[in-house]
Amino acid sequence: MFESLQEKLEGALKRFRGQSVISEENVSEALKEIRRALLEADVNLNVVKKFVDDVREKAIGTEVKGKLMPDQLIVKIVHDELVELLGSKTAELTLSPQPPTIIMVAGLQGSGKTTFCAKLARNLRKKGRQPLLVACDVHRPAAILQLQQLAQQVKIPVYTEDTKDAVSIAKNALAYSKKFGRDIIIVDTAGRLTIDEEMMQEVRNIYDAVKPTETLFVCDAMIGQDAVTTAKAFHDLLSLTGIVLTKLDGDTRGGAALSVLNVVGKPIKFVGTGEKLEALEPFHPERIASRILGMGDILTLVEKAEQQIDEEQAKKLEEKIRKNQFTFVDFLDQLKTIQKMGSLKDLLGLIPGMDKQLRNVNIDDKAFKKVEAMILSMTLQERNQPKIINGSRRQRIARGSGTTVQDVNRLLKQFEEMQKMMKMVTQNKRSRFLPKLPGFSK
Length: 442
Fold this sequence. Notes:
single chain; 442 residues; alpha/beta; Four Helix Bundle (Hemerythrin (Met), subunit A); Rossmann fold; 434 Repressor (Amino-terminal Domain); 3 domains; eight-stranded mixed β-sheet; two-stranded antiparallel sheet; 10 strands
């Protein structure tokens, strides 16, 4: 996330290392690089100008107190200004005091709008809500089918009608939701290729007909300022209440995230961080600012883990580790839990300092599949007692998993090292060497 911007900002802030004071000269030199980095990230020119001016005003003349170093102080100033730029605080979804809450979703084709609708429905259901998806994209071929297939995965109903009248569908869905006790309606409107006048009128008519509590605009974070310009056009028509940035896990320069609040005047409420339906996060300005500056995001990592880890299972696992009874059966369970949390590189990138360490490291998530195949090719006895796996058993496991004997040998060695490390941790000892994890290569 924002790798290029992060690298350039890091380079600019390095100028303060070893400095004894913050002076107008060193601030000006650093701000030139920061300005260039933001413009290359496709951040709006007026936003860049204001950001640079604000950082300069706060930095010059600031007294460095106590044990704080100038580089630490300037990072704090830049971090605080980034938080301000991104919205200061998390913008919560507004729910109607009188159900149903109507959430209207608009956006261009290819922005991930329909997938977001399913992700949001899943997210709300996990919080105890009863969402209903409404298929009002009657123009794009297979749009309704796509929504139905996604909804089936998350076990949420979809309201559809065999008509091209999107306004009528939205109105009737409202009556349907009241009849069947659905407290949140998520209306998926037609995506458009450009700001088409006829299509824009249709989305305005739906807006007038259902009077949504929330009107969210979904935009592709990878297209930078263009996404912000389009969001502004939609806001002028619909009075948006929030923005959703998708594909934040891709080659995102950062322009959309850093410009949208100042240009559109509406906060980012959610970000899409992958194709999986669980890959949706609330937008936390402070956490995103920390990620941009390579400071990690432990809170998000903890939240992801809490969503996947059962407390009772965690206690049982801890007990097994204490008794040195951690087996391949347990390892396979943990592997599946990690995979549910998302890309391994993204997860490790949330740990402070790891972004920099992983910049030139290739982490292949497919390596997990290979490890999983090898474990599944073992008998239950072999998974529980790895020491019985001799030469002939290794050959059988390799054949069954489509791997090599060398791969099996490597896995067994890594697992043995992992067991030793776990034993040392439970005995409050520190290991000098950590085992090399599957999927890492220079």
